[in-house]
Amino acid sequence: MADTARTLSEETRSRIEAAAFRRLLAHLNQTRPDVQNIDLMILAGFCRNCLADWYRDAASAEGAPLDKEAAREAVYGMPFAQWKAAHQKEATPEQLAAFAAAQEKHADS
């Protein structure tokens, strides 16, 4: 099976990656909007905002620059302020401590 992945055309690979990215966004934004960005950062080292930054970087590399808000809207599926009001909770002291510990761990590696 791994051999098949290596023989895909660039166009097919790009379509597959785009579909997987769209599915990830749908999962994060529709299926699991309860998962807070800080928790994603603690566990995975990235969050929805990171995805938006990567999306913006990729757009710029393709000659289609986006501003921060446009990239976030592409990732969140709505304006970020609207998402934040609907889904984002204030970080707890425990989350902030875990985030700080995760940042220290990543700085040491």
UniProtKB/TrEMBL annotation:
Family matches, as Pfam families: DUF1244
Limits of the SMc04008-like domain: 35-100
Stated name of the protein: Deoxycytidine triphosphate deaminase
Organism from which the protein derives: Luteimonas chenhongjianii
